[in-house]
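Final report, results section. Input specification for complex C-07:
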Amino acid sequence: MIDLLLLSAALFFGLLTVYSRDNVYSAVSLASAAGAVGAYYAYLAQFAPAFLVFVIYIGAVMLLVIITAAMYGGVQRWGGRYFLAATLVFLAAAALGVLLWETPPTKPTPVQLGDLLPAVMLLIGVAAVSLVVGIEVARRV
Amino acid sequence: MNPGVVVGFILILLGLYSIATTRNLVRILIALELVTVGAFAALAPLASVDPGLLFYGVLLLVMISVSEASILAALIYRTYALTKNTDISTVTGGREV
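Structure output:
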């Protein structure tokens, strides 16, 4: 059930990639499709390929694609909105990190989810990079 | 037939369609990466056969996509820096530097 849901999400974002008019929306939905495929790998319990897809592919290649799409047309018209969204994501990630940092480890949960702190730190880093890109793009307008 | 193969095949066809119909270099880069995502999805059923082979397949696809994305990004940068345009017909414009 979950695998079909993830695959249909990948298909939906792939369709959105081809048929959206704006380059930045297209690149962001492409990253979402790649994330859905990576989640499908994680659902199949293939964690090393899922790590490759999430960290290397989305973190490096998709960042390059999104920044390229943002630099050469598209996001300039919505620099303020992009800056606002990046600020909100950064603040939410920072709040999540503070929450996880301050919460003392209480009773062990029945399902061991692993240590979430490195993933949240990675999220904060990506959000900070996005914030810097947003500032640079908004200054150019 | 495995749903991963079907979805991957559809994504690859969508990417090829987008490459064939667009005139913007940035959209060509995006569509090429969509083809790579489709190849990821089509590779997923290998997990039930040989997970080690799946890991190396994904690693190979990631390396290929890094190189092709950097080549296309450099082409887009060069075209935009010389002609202030990203239309595909301006690739021949500009000058040798």
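The first helix of chain A runs from residue 2 to 19. Residues 83 and 135 of chain A are 6 Å apart (CA to CA). This concludes the modelling results for the funded period.
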